[in-house]
């Protein structure tokens, strides 16, 4: 028994997964005592069971264990702060009248409090429903030392569970009070961003949102607008990289009749249309230097002049800009004005790539499946564990937008109520050397080649923001060949658009 306690103690010191170590510990207690079932129960401040590890002799988890044990015995240990050691609960004068003991046909019981300083925050419960006197004094002494051994780890588990509950409550309050319905994520980095949005939303401060393509920069820009006093006025998103230089200036500031060929009438620009609202300038790094000067003026004074007009106009807009490039490096290279960079970067927000917030992948995938299942009238769809595991191991170069597109495709292809790898060809084609034994040299070489081709095509599309012609040119491939590779690996260029 001492050797088993020593083994449990070493596990408690070295194992990082609290759930795993407590399950392993209760398995050890069952082995030593011969208990039919073993439980570790942790109580919340109101006495409700907050956390439980429940196992039986076969090392399987018990289902709904709190309904299968004696609540009378648990309550006694909690309130009186003393252990219970009973050889036959059905004949015990204190417990034989208990409904929970009679209904569950409990015979032998050991139940001990788990303490932290003066607080009784949990209990170790061992029972046997078939043998009277199943536990000896030696078993009881082992269980007493066992409860002491696990107290620190168990208290950590309780505090972690309480903290998780508080975080969930605060997150619900945050989402209910503010308009963050479209921003899905529980990763600390995302919660930190949402907290910053709450602090700065109702100011006029210019915001620069940086991050890779597909990380959700526009969602954050919309959240800033929706939670500001400008929310009743227009939110105007403009992609600076999607329009030619001369057309972008006209779109932003408008133009006068006759300003250029085809300007047959006066046109109001987006800054003027967005008066009182928010203008979101995506891919701000693509703005040419001449236009950067005009942007600097409108940020400084709110003044601008339509193309081909000498008339100075005023507008009151908040500017939120976004970039998937390092603007400070562009400033150093002389490709972006330093004074404009400073004007834009009053408040900076860095969007984490999905590969750095993997804990959100499961939540996001379930969100997208539910969204698209409703959109395509598919009913309730579930995702298999192997799909969830494969999603978690995938790096998502296209970030959240790529995950969204993958799950939309999966929902469309799914003809049952379960999404499996067959519905995700992009992930199903990922090489997996660890799981495949006996792979020949030729097969392994082909897998490596396909993985390289797929990643190379994705990299070219990502750098060209989903423009196939530009990506093919950068790859030094003809358009048809490049497009064939895209089809082969089920790559959707739209997921790399800004």
What do these coordinates show?
There is one protein chain. The chain has 20 helices and 16 strands. The protein is an alpha/beta fold. It has three domains: 2-160, Beta-Lactamase; 179-350, Rossmann fold (3-Layer(aba) Sandwich); 356-496, Helicase, Ruva Protein, domain 3 (Orthogonal Bundle). The strands form five sheets. A five-stranded antiparallel beta sheet has the order 2-1-5-4-3, sandwiched between helices. The chain has a five-stranded parallel beta sheet with strand order 7-10-13-6-14, with helices on one face. α14 crosses α16 (399-413). It is elongated and about 100 Å long. The termini are far apart. The model is unreliable at 431-435 (pLDDT under 50).
The CATH topology of the largest domain is Rossmann fold
Strand order of the largest sheet: 2-1-5-4-3
Q: Specify the helix fraction band.
A: 40-55%
How many beta-strand elements? 16
The secondary structure category is alpha/beta
Q: Give a short account of the largest sheet.
A: 5 strands, antiparallel
CATH class of the largest domain: Alpha Beta
Flag low-confidence runs: 431-435
| CATH architectural arrangement of the largest domain | 3-Layer(aba) Sandwich
Q: Which radius of gyration do the C-alpha atoms yield?
A: 31 Å
Secondary structure tally, helices: 20
End-to-end span in angstroms?
Answer: 63 Å
CATH superfamily of the largest domain: P-loop containing nucleotide triphosphate hydrolases
């Amino acid at each position: 028994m001492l050797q088993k306690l020593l083994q449990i103690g070493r596990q408690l010191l070295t194992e990082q997964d609290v759930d795993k170590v407590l399950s392993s510990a209760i398995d050890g207690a069952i082995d030593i005592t011969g208990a039919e079932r073993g439980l570790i129960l942790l109580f919340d401040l109101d006495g409700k069971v907050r956390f439980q590890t429940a196992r039986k002799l076969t090392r399987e988890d018990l289902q709904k264990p709190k309904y299968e044990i004696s609540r009378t015995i648990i309550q006694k240990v909690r309130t009186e702060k003393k252990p219970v050691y009973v050889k036959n609960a059905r004949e015990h004068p204190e417990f034989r009248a208990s409904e929970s003991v009679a209904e569950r046909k409990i015979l032998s019981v050991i139940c001990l409090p788990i303490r932290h300083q003066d607080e009784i925050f949990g209990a170790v419960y061992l029972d046997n429903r078939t043998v009277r006197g199943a536990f000896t004094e030696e078993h009881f002494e082992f269980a007493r030392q066992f409860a002491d051994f696990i107290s620190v780890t168990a208290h950590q588990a309780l505090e972690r569970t309480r903290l998780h509950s508080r975080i969930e409550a605060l997150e619900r309050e945050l989402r209910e009070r503010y308009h963050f319905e479209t921003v899905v994520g529980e990763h600390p980095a995302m919660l930190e961003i949402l907290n910053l949005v709450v602090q700065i939303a109702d100011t006029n401060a210019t915001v620069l949102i940086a991050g890779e393509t597909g990380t959700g920069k526009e969602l954050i820009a919309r959240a800033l607008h929706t939670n500001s006093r400008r929310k009743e006025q227009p939110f105007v998103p403009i992609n600076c990289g999607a329009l030619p230089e001369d057309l972008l200036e006209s779109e932003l500031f408008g133009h006068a009749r006759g300003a250029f060929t085809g300007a047959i009438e006066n046109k109001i620009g987006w800054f003027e249309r967005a008066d009182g609202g928010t203008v979101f300038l995506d891919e701000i790094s693509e703005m040419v230097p001449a236009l950067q000067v005009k942007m600097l003026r409108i940020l400084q004074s709110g003044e601008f002049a339509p193309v081909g007009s000498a008339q100075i106009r005023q507008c009151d807009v908040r500017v939120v800009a976004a970039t998937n490039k390092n603007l400070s490096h562009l400033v150093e290279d002389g490709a972006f004005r330093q004074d404009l960079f400073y004007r834009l970067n009053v408040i900076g927000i860095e969007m984490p790539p999905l590969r750095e917030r993997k804990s959100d992948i499961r939540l996001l995938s379930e969100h997208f499946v539910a969204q698209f299942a409703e959109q395509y009238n598919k009913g309730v769809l579930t995702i298999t564990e192997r799909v969830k595991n494969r999603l978690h191991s995938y790096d998502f170069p296209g970030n959240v937008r790529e995950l969204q597109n993958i799950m939309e495709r999966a929902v469309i292809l799914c003809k049952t109520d379960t999404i499996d790898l067959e519905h995700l060809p992009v992930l199903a084609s990922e090489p997996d050397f660890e799981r495949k034994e006996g792979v020949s040299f030729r097969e392994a070489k082909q897998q490596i080649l396909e993985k390289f081709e797929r990643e190379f095509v994705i990299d070219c599309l990502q750098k060209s923001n989903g423009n196939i012609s530009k990506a093919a040119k950068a790859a030094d491939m003809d358009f048809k060949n490049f497009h064939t590779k895209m089809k082969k690996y089920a790559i959707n260029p739209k997921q790399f658009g800004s």
